[in-house]
Design a protein that fits this description.
The protein is an alpha+beta fold. Helices cover 16% and strands 26% of the residues. Strands 1, 3, 5, 6, 9, 10, 11, 12, 15, 16, 17 and 18 form a twelve-stranded mixed β-sheet that branches. Strands 2-4-8-7 form a four-stranded antiparallel β-sheet, with no helix packed on it. The radius of gyration is 26 Å and the shape is globular.
Length: 609
């Protein structure tokens, strides 16, 4: 028999007006389970009287009771409940003894306990299920009774409506304009994480509560206090900075959660990627943001952990917003360490999206108007692309990949292995070093982090050298982040030469660019050479090899090497370097200089094996 409890909270004094819950304390919500303690909280209209607050909780069956004492601070009240095991069906009633105006008794019903995850970021986190290819399969499974452990809540934004706490069954049966039903209006990445986590945990899966707050087009500095952003050089602050931290993080300061999920970065592609060790740019800002969020939600002991798990997502290859050097952003998203967790980002986990771009990311057929007229000569072969759009249309183009389920799978697997103690791989191969000899570059990966996995080289288009492994043939052109715009005609600029310094080059006549050209960074073929290494054939370049990198996309390049729009979809997870274990997780993007025949990574990353 499912336990049912009634929590009666009596709030006395310090008020002469109404008492209310905070906006997200609602019917059907999930509160964080034991061993942490959850809270109910809200506001009072303050008066001249002072009196203590008492909160009494009574189990409806009468088998147990407990009482806790809450506190009032100005017009804010909070009552911390005793840690409760997962499950149950509770009602919580809060009474203000002494409120002379408005409601003096408020209640929430159908409350249960489980694990609460907070999802934030920008448009690829906000993208709703309506624009994803797996939505109808999930809908059918929910309506058949699966995933009844998941409940959702979403703050209204420029891409999502307000979704009050609800079960999935109720959400699928609630009509909603544009998306069809309320469930389809929910963040896809956030939801698929919970769905996949439920699948991988099986019978051990607890109730999972999702709090979604993402805002399309937002930047990292909007999610961070100005004081924290100012710790990092080259972070641009303006009137919009800190606003989302104030509006979408601080309101949850008294809310106990299990962990965070963060998918953001497209709108910071034009800012300096920087380096965490030098305290510059995005690579510095996000680690500090993580620390600030944890501190904000963990001020009360035994609530949110001061080291709460924090999951991150690297950008898809279409997330450049027209800026070059996606690889530099990938390095920044890992705090300049080439892997997480690390010293700057403890207790973090990562899901890569660099190989999860939309299968039909080449939208030439769409922009040519072919989906309305296949008879045009330039539209022959566009039927596959157009059929995919009829089934699931894009939201503002291929920057928002429509296949978010694989991303949810990766986030869930990483969380299961790093947070819940599951024995599953949580990452793919991580660079540990390289050696150059006799026209071969042997690239090695960390044995310890691979565990029982081995490195595999998947199929790729060898006729186009689409291995995504590139070598540098001009040592003076090493660049971690280019300028999008030329400083002057006939010039090209780099914002960061790997040591935080800019440089400018004169372009040869007739050349549009050389810093990221295929002559400067040619792609080379690779083959497997052991359980933790691969070999790149560099024989045609002699001794002119000064660096190596992988998955450092420079524009809308994916692992299908610029498929033509009529050549069919790019298979999900088609980048060749991956691990052999569950999920075939991709190798982390990497870059390293080659000095005296050995790899040297940029500090703080180390790869000197």
């Amino acid at each position: 028999m499912k336990a049912t409890a009634t929590l009666l909270a009596a709030v006395i004094g310090c008020a002469s007006g109404a008492i209310t819950f905070s906006d997200h304390i609602q019917d059907h919500m999930i509160l964080q389970r034991a061993p942490q303690k959850a809270a109910v909280h809200g506001t009072l209209e303050t008066g001249s009287e002072d009196a203590p607050i008492t909160v009494t909780a009574k189990v409806a069956t009468g088998t147990s009771t407990y009482s806790v004492e809450g506190t009032v601070d100005g017009d804010q009240w909070v009552a911390y409940l005793k840690p409760s095991e997962a499950g149950g069906n509770y009602s919580i009633t809060v009474t203000c003894d002494g409120c002379s105006q408005g409601n003096n008794t408020i209640s929430v019903y159908d409350v249960t306990f489980g694990d609460v995850w907070y999802c934030a970021g920008q448009s690829n986190m906000a993208l709703n299920l309506h624009h994803t290819v797996s939505r109808n399969k999930s809908l059918d499974l929910i309506q058949s009774g699966k995933y009844s452990n998941i409940r959702i809540y979403s703050m209204a934004s420029n891409m999502n409506p307000n979704i009050s706490w609800t079960t999935l069954k109720n959400a699928t049966n609630t009509p909603k304009r544009h998306s069809g039903n309320l469930f389809f209006a929910m963040s896809a990445t956030c939801y698929y994480f919970a769905e996949s986590l439920t699948d991988i945990m099986g019978a051990a899966a607890p109730p999972i509560g999702l709090i979604h707050t993402a805002v399309g087009g937002s930047k990292a500095e909007q999610w961070t206090s100005n004081t924290t952003s100012a710790k990092c050089a080259n972070v641009t602050l303006n009137g919009g900075s800190q606003k989302l931290f104030d509006a979408r993080v601080k309101p949850f300061a008294k809310t106990t959660i299990k962990g965070f999920l963060w998918y953001q970065g497209e709108n910071d592609m034009g800012e300096l990627f920087g380096n965490s060790e030098r305290s510059t740019g995005y690579a510095c800002e996000v680690p500090n943001m993580i620390a600030e969020w944890r501190a904000t939600l963990s001020k009360e002991p035994n609530t949110t952990s001061p080291e709460a798990p924090f999951g991150l997502v690297t950008l898809a290859p279409t997330g450049s917003e027209g800026h070059p050097d996606m690889g530099g952003m990938y390095a920044a998203q890992m705090g300049s360490y080439g892997n997480v967790p690390n010293a700057a980002m403890p207790n973090t986990f990562l899901a890569h999206a660099f190989d999860l771009g939309d299968p039909w990311s080449n939208t030439t057929c769409y922009h040519n108007g072919c989906c309305d007229n296949f008879t045009l000569p330039k539209c022959h072969g566009c039927e596959g692309f157009c059929d995919s759009c009829k089934e699931t249309n894009f939201y503002m183009g291929a920057i928002h990949s429509r296949d978010k389920k694989p991303l949810g799978d990766r986030l869930a697997q990483a969380a299961y292995g790093s947070v819940y103690g599951g024995t599953v791989p949580v990452r793919g191969p991580v660079l540990s070093g390289c050696s150059l000899s006799n026209g071969k570059l042997t690239i090695t990966f960390n044995k310890t982090l691979l565990g029982s996995q081995s490195v595999i080289v998947g199929d790729y288009q060898r006729d186009r050298n689409a291995s995504m492994v590139q070598i540098l043939t001009n040592s003076s052109l090493f660049c971690m982040q280019m300028d999008k715009d030329a400083p002057a005609p006939g010039e090209q600029s780099c914002r960061d030469n790997g040591e935080g310094e800019p440089f400018t080059v004169q372009l040869p006549k007739g050349k549009r660019g050389i810093i990221e050209s295929s002559e400067t960074w040619p792609m080379v073929n690779i083959t497997s050479s052991g359980p933790n290494s691969v070999v790149a054939d560099v024989s045609e370049f002699g001794d002119n090899i000064f660096a190596v990198r992988y998955a450092f996309f420079t524009s809308h390049v994916n692992c299908c090497a610029k498929n033509t729009p009529t050549s069919g979809p790019c298979p999900i997870a088609s980048c060749p370097l991956k691990a052999s274990g569950l999920g075939n997780l991709p190798a982390n993007p990497f870059v390293a200089k080659i000095i005296n025949g050995k790899c040297e990574c940029l500090p703080p990353q180390v790869c000197d094996e």
